[in-house]
Design goal:
The protein is mostly helical. The protein has eleven helices and no strands. Helix 6 packs antiparallel against helix 7 and helix 7 packs parallel to helix 9. The protein is globular and about 65 Å long. The termini are far apart. InterPro entries: Peptidase_A24A_bac, Prepilin_IV_endopep_pep, Prepilin_pept_A24_N, Prepilin_peptidase/N-MTase. Keywords: Cell inner membrane, Cell membrane, Hydrolase, Membrane, Methyltransferase, Multifunctional enzyme, Protease, Transferase, Transmembrane, Transmembrane helix. Pfam families: A24_N_bact, Peptidase_A24. Belongs to the peptidase A24 family.
Length: about 300
């Protein structure tokens, strides 16, 4: 293992290429997480609701009771991140293993199902390519170090969160909370920042957006963001300390505002419609992880 690490340190482009291949493969699994985790969560919520109603015998209108009794999706009863295997949503034909190869599988199929020729969303290879490129760059930037290992794990989580938030306006605790605790644990040895700065960063990340949320709600009576956004910013505070939080908030706000205006101008959304903020926090946090100190130092040098 030591010899392998030394070899990768001597040939950073080779290490980046290997990291790209590995991460693109994981990106294929992240597509599964993005699609299936929300379905699993909705099923769990329905079960909890039905259990509550059965336990307390709460009377409900017949229309609502019938909705709660119906399945919320058309997927098999046993449905998780592993079972059932991948299949075409249109014709239900099982997808062959070689068609599941990251990037290559989609290209071999020409972006269509091998059985019914239904178009396969380009999002699948995009997620795989994005995951591979991001982790490949991390390999080049950090080299074969523990920082690379943990930054890669964080990147996987951020890509899954981004996809789910774009689809469902949801940042699952099943991903954000483990990332939060992992950030605190790895910084016990000062992997990215000191333990004190990590703890303060986690609290400051959560409380900063929590304060904005309640201030906006008291002024307007509306909820401007979700609790998942607080937790995601707390993740970055736990990983990189409180010092980078202002930069992350600024970057995410600017990017979110620009994208929102572009969507309104292009009539993709109406003014006042909610847009997910999690992807902008995730992107800003990832940028801060790589170039945060340089950006802050550049800004301070211009003052």
């Amino acid at each position: 293992m030591t010899q392998f690490i030394q070899l990768m340190a001597q040939f950073p482009f080779l290490f980046a290429a290997l990291a790209f291949i590995f991460a693109a493969t994981i990106g294929s699994f992240l597509n599964v997480v993005i699609h299936r985790l929300p379905v699993m969560m909705k099923r769990e919520w329905q079960q909890e609701c039905n259990q509550y109603l059965d336990e307390y015998h709460q009377p409900l209108p017949k229309e609502l009771a019938s909705k709660l009794a119906k399945p919320i999706d058309d997927y098999p009863e046993k449905y998780n991140l592993v079972v059932p295997g991948s299949a075409c949503p249109k014709c239900k034909a099982n997808i062959k293993p070689w068609h599941n190869l990251p990037l290559l599988g989609w290209l071999m199929l020409g972006g269509k199902c091998a059985s019914c020729k239904t178009a396969i969303s380009a999002r699948y290879p995009i997620v795989e390519a994005l995951t591979g490129i991001a982790v490949g760059y991390l390999a080049y930037h950090f080299g074969p170090t523990w920082q690379f290992v943990f930054a890669t794990a964080l990147t996987f989580g951020l890509i899954a969160l981004t996809g789910i938030d774009l689809d469902e306006m949801l940042l699952p605790d099943q991903i954000t909370l483990p990332l939060l605790w992992l950030g605190l644990l790895i910084n016990l040895n000062g992997t990215f920042t000191s333990p004190t700065e990590a703890i303060i960063g986690a609290a400051a990340g959560y409380m900063s957006l929590w304060s904005v949320f309640w201030g906006f709600k008291l002024l307007t009576g509306k909820e401007g963001m979700g609790y998942g956004d607080f937790k995601l910013l707390a993740v970055f505070g736990a990983w990189f300390g409180w010092q980078l939080l202002p930069l992350i908030i600024l970057l995410s706000s600017v990017v979110g505002a620009v994208v929102g205006v572009l969507l309104i101008v292009n009539k993709r959304i109406n003014s006042g419609n909610p847009i997910p903020f999690g992807p902008y926090i995730a992107l800003a946090g990832w940028i801060a992880m790589i170039w945060g100190e340089q950006i802050v130092n550049w800004y301070l040098s211009t003052l």
